[in-house]
Amino acid sequence: MDTNTAEREKLALIKANAFTYLRSDWYDRLVAAFGGAAGVLERSPQELAREGGFSAETAASFLAEASALDAEAELEKSAAAGVSIITRGEPGYPEGLSDLYDAPLALYVKGCAISGAPKLGMVGTRQVSPYGARTATALGRELSSKGLLIVSGLARGVDTLCHEAALYSKAPTWAVVGTGLGKCYPPENRGLADRIVAGGGAIISEFPFDKGPMAFHFPRRNRIIAALSFATLVIEGDIKSGALITAKQALELGRDVMAVPGPIDSPRSAGPNRLIKDGAAPILSADDVLAAVPLSMSFGLRPSAGGEKKSAASAPIFGGDAGEALSALGSEEATLDMLTDRLGWSVQRAAAALFELEAAGAVACANGVYAKRI
Question: Are 211 and 345 contained in the same domain?
């Protein structure tokens, strides 16, 4: 394919990718029928409907949305924001996505080039419990420090904690998002997205640059997390959680599914516990995940120290009120009132100590209940 043809095909793929309800499996039928991506956009709705096996109305909507996007302007706008657009078939398009029957026609990537490091999808509920926060943080830190690249969705809760854990370990992490890269959802994670890029990671989307969040974007986003990763690890989520959608998609792709067990009376652990009951690997430590890394991907991983607990020197040391509050918290969960009773302090003094610990990432608070994260 000569340079002009390749550029024309890339522009056509970017335009086709803009269709809200795109299915690349039926789009491939059109490409085969009309000799290329550019050829598809030159046909009538009736011709597309006949070859694609869908209605003329759908074909007309597809052509209208594709034609409305100025692909050259999209490339320029993306480049100005430090975003690369990689179309399917180009160098740098992730190999794992070829396993999807509905692979994205285009990926928008801000940050590092696509890496060959073994990738682990880590997903879970937005309404994370203190137990889930501790677990996501501890596993994310250790696994990323051992050389795994954590892939998640930049959502509130477990996703955010897993990205933060990788950054804490000075390791790259990838966020696959449900908006175009000109937007950020949730908006409070814009700073986190910037730190992911600055830390050698990447923000990835299949949606046009200025596309805002829509409900159906997120299940679609989840299939990319599953396809990029050798396994998907679920940390909390109810039975209908989006995390379980990701696990289902991983299974359909022949990937491993792992889950962190939780209390049987906790709705947040109902999803992982069901996955384990149905055959997912129960994860009790980082070693359980590392043992499942395929041999072909394990070169360069840093082995775990025989499953031994980290020494106290590896964790931050707090003095003064913060240190006393952390000791009083112990391995249990506690409210502010419970800690003031244990310590015999004023509410203001205890709250100040807990704020210091929370800001340092040593404790997490969910619904007024504090628990250690380290």
Answer: no
